[in-house]
Amino acid sequence: MQYEAVIGLEIHVQIKTRTKMFTAAPYEYGAAPNTLTDAVVLGLPGTLPVLNHTAIEKCAKLGLMLGCEIAEVCKWDRKNYFYPDSPKNYQLTQNEEPLCIGGKVEIELPGPSRNVEGEHRWVALNRIHLEEDPGKLTHEAFETVIDFNRAGVPLAEIVTEPDMSSSAEAVAFLNCLRNMIVYAGISDCDMEKGQMRCDANVSLRPVGSDKLGTRTEMKNLNSISNVKAAIEYEIERQTEILEEGGSITQETRRWDVESGTSFSLRSKEEAHDYRYFPDPDLMPVQMDRARVAELEAELPERPLDKQRRYQEELGLPFTITSVLCVDRELSEFFEEALKTHNAPKQIANYITNDLLRELSAVSEHGESAHSVSQSKLTPAHIATLAKIIDEGVISKQIGKEVFTEMFQTGEMPDAIVEKKGLKQSNDTGEIEALCREAIAGNAKAVGQFKDGNEKALNALKGPVMKATKGKANPAMLDQLLKKLIDEG
Amino acid sequence: MSDLHFKTISELAAMLAAGETTSVEITQAVIDRTAAVDAQVKAFLSTDTEDALAQAKASDERRAAGKALGPLDGIPIGIKDTLAVKDQPLRCASKMLENYVSPYDATCIVKLREAGAVIWGRLNMDEFAMGSSTENSAYQTTANPWDLETIPGGSSGGSAAAMAAGEAIATLGTDTGGSIRQPAALCGVVGMKPTYGLISRYGLVAFASSLDQVGPFARTVEDAAILMEAMLGKDDLDSTSIAPQGETNYSEALKTKKGPWKLGVPQEFFGEGIDPEVKANIEKAIDWYKSQGCEIVDISLPHSELAVPVYYIVATAEASSNLARFDGVRYSHRSEEAKDAMTLFTKSRGEGFGDEVKRRIILGTYVLSSGYYDAYYLRAQKVRRLILGDFEKAFEQVDAILTPTSPTPAFKRGERADDPLAMYLSDVYTISVNLAGLPAISVPSGFTESGLPIGLQVIGKAFGEADMFAVANAFEKAHDYAQQTPTL
């Protein structure tokens, strides 16, 4: 029998807020253990939670970005369970009435090659709810230590419908989701810093069946490659069991990165009874519709929508839009540059080729990844460079030299051209003399050109460019050479 | 200066203003009285005389500089061991918090300090406020100053007994199902529970969040009003606190509101289980109101018979979750036998909590567990709404409701200790008020033949404290019960 996988994901995203979910204690990744706590975070006797409205608004914005309906009222429930990382031994979450309902995310599957756009489809969401993160346990040889810095940080839990059927779809979903969340400024989604974590539910069913099989849940996958590997492993594991006539046990499993295998944590029978009930310390939150409308108006364009627009309106190829639109900063840099000089292709090329190359070179030598905002270049730099090339002030060749210089110094390209005397030579007399020399010195190339080989002209251009240090106007040079050969 | 310790806040405020005494003298009188009688009464779990005298000295200096703060400036107030006072033990009369010292002040304490009050001593209680006799304290059993063989009521028994014995000018208690009013009645002092939300719960170690309220014990209704004025108000640290509505200048309202009132008497409160002496006493009090021209209206609170079972579902459910933070991981008792996380939890809690607390945690865990939630917790919340509905209907006809505070006078120590159900009925007249979130006050209404105090309960509308105080004040002023003190 042929089986197909049914996959649903639960993604926890740390919402970027200045303070924690229920108190004014700050949060920052990497701070010394237990320095970012207060009486409320530690659940000291007598303390009470007070809602951080920024977290609510950011989660609502996330919901709107992902096409969810924003609830009229959302409520807080207590999820009761004992665990040493949990200061109150209950977690405040939204069980019965979450903030965001439904929703769908457009994903782009990988194309046949990097340069070819893949198929697009939609993945349906069930809900997004808010909850607080617990602390962090570190197990050492003979003891366990707890850092409560992370305790109380707002998490949005995005729950999909079982709407994916392969690890590739799950990966595509996570990538698209991450782009959208970063775009909307809700989280940086840095999985290494635990800002985005994923649980994967996997079940199998015979192809063509519409009934769901027994599922297993893989907990706390902390990189996209782990998600991919864990899902593939689980599909294979379940397939083997089913093919041997066995049945799947509903259980929670843990992925072990080292061995590339998973093991059972607990079965359905051992599952927790969380004894959910409405938190009596927090009032239900009435969502202000006018404010929700404002948040919706503030949403950025979705990355895939932007990509489509660049392709359709600006005629940019997929190879460029797929690079330009992944990063909101980059695409905004691009759009800003267009305001100075409306040459989408040239500018996009400078950004996706030269700028990114220089940035990654800096990153390789420097400490952390370099972003556009950290470089000395502004959209005006790139736009001006494209402009002076288009106007024939310098050649493309010289443009590369100018680019490197302006990236390093932050000087404007026209100033560099002026300072270094890189302006194209339009002195026809000098160029004509050089051209005659070149024609005289390379009869072979002249012959080839006459036989219809356009490229042969390059052999003649070379010496002229060399003699003028690249400043000869290439268009003029082209014209002159052809004219002189015709005449000769 | 003799008997300063039995004077009222308003008397002492006048004396302080006239320069007839000082806060240091008053505080010293209270300290001396405590030293003299507390070996018999056992109201205090700890005192910090040095700290109290330093606060008193600061008050006197303020006054000398012409910066006296108001009627509470310089008045020593005893605090129930469940309210957080910075740098003082906060044990909730439990072994669980044996070595715990609060790093912060409860909001009500902050407000009392702002009013200049001298924060004085930690008062005994039933462990985590669970009980009706103060026999559940892990440290000591408080005696009723009127008869040392009897209990002072509970759970704020220490606060009530300290008042009756003159060991404080006023005290604070907390009331979840009658824990201020019942001991006030049994100890012959005034005890008051405000409308839910009127006083912040921040810094009150939670027993049952949706029922708990902080409230004053005082010698007179006027003193209780003065304390309430100092403590009420919306608190940013407690989401369930509410901005006061209506008349909040209570001490002024006592002078201006003269009646006659329409007073409701619920027949359900005079049936089975009431002590004949209590019944006769309260009927006499009702007759007095009638003689003053008040209209006495027979009202019905048909769901009040369900109040006790509903209370023990709601309160224990919330308690099971609220007390989960006492797990031995951070600041609470840690078992020396703990070997791993699970035994750390179970052994620490097993050793740290007393029987009544365990009984309620188990009951609360049961009523919230999956499969029983709908049958118990959810249904109890529905009945709770019916109970509130009964009161709302009654208040369409009347200004306040009169009932006995406790069905019996103080009983002998140990008499009901092994019969939790009989003990639970001690609060039968007070519990429905907590479920409905209403204000109520107990005023001394006479004595039994054997000399034990009896209390009259006046229940007000939500935020109807001003009327409630006025009704109680009228009775108090026409009788001398409040001026009587036990011989110790």
From TrEMBL, chain A:
SMART domains xref list: GatB_Yqey
Keywords from the named record: ATP-binding, Ligase, Nucleotide-binding, Protein biosynthesis
Pfam families: GatB_N, GatB_Yqey
Reaction catalysed by this enzyme: L-glutamyl-tRNA(Gln) + L-glutamine + ATP + H2O = L-glutaminyl-tRNA(Gln) + L-glutamate + ADP + phosphate + H(+); L-aspartyl-tRNA(Asn) + L-glutamine + ATP + H2O = L-asparaginyl-tRNA(Asn) + L-glutamate + ADP + phosphate + 2 H(+)
EC number per UniProt: 6.3.5.-
Residue span, Asn/Gln amidotransferase domain: 332-485
Keyword Acyltransferase applies: no
Self-association and partners: Heterotrimer of A, B and C subunits.
PANTHER family: GLUTAMYL-TRNA GLN AMIDOTRANSFERASE SUBUNIT B MITOCHONDRIAL AND PROKARYOTIC PET112-RELATED, GLUTAMYL-TRNA(GLN) AMIDOTRANSFERASE SUBUNIT B, MITOCHONDRIAL
Family to which the UniProt record says this protein belongs: Belongs to the GatB/GatE family. GatB subfamily.
Main function: Allows the formation of correctly charged Asn-tRNA(Asn) or Gln-tRNA(Gln) through the transamidation of misacylated Asp-tRNA(Asn) or Glu-tRNA(Gln) in organisms which lack either or both of asparaginyl-tRNA or glutaminyl-tRNA synthetases. The reaction takes place in the presence of glutamine and ATP through an activated phospho-Asp-tRNA(Asn) or phospho-Glu-tRNA(Gln).
Full protein name: Aspartyl/glutamyl-tRNA(Asn/Gln) amidotransferase subunit B
Species of origin: Coraliomargarita algicola
Encoding gene per record: gatB
TrEMBL record, chain B:
NCBIfam families: gatA
Gene3D superfamilies in the cross-refs: Amidase signature (AS) domain
Enzyme Commission number(s) of this protein: 6.3.5.7
Protein name: Glutamyl-tRNA(Gln) amidotransferase subunit A
Keywords assigned: ATP-binding, Ligase, Nucleotide-binding, Protein biosynthesis
Record-annotated Amidase domain positions: 25-466
Organism, as annotated: Coraliomargarita algicola
Location of the active site: K80 (charge relay system), S155 (charge relay system), S179 (acyl-ester intermediate)
UniProt xrefs under Pfam families: Amidase
Job of this protein: Allows the formation of correctly charged Gln-tRNA(Gln) through the transamidation of misacylated Glu-tRNA(Gln) in organisms which lack glutaminyl-tRNA synthetase. The reaction takes place in the presence of glutamine and ATP through an activated gamma-phospho-Glu-tRNA(Gln).
Reactions accelerated catalytically: L-glutamyl-tRNA(Gln) + L-glutamine + ATP + H2O = L-glutaminyl-tRNA(Gln) + L-glutamate + ADP + phosphate + H(+)
Subunit structure, as described in the record: Heterotrimer of A, B and C subunits.
Lineage, uppermost ranks: Bacteria, Pseudomonadati, Verrucomicrobiota, Opitutia, Puniceicoccales
Family statement drawn from the similarity comment of this UniProt entry: Belongs to the amidase family. GatA subfamily.
Coiled coil spans: none
InterPro entries, sorted: Amidase, Amidase_CS, Amidase_dom, AS_sf, GatA
The UniProt record lists the keyword Lipid metabolism: no
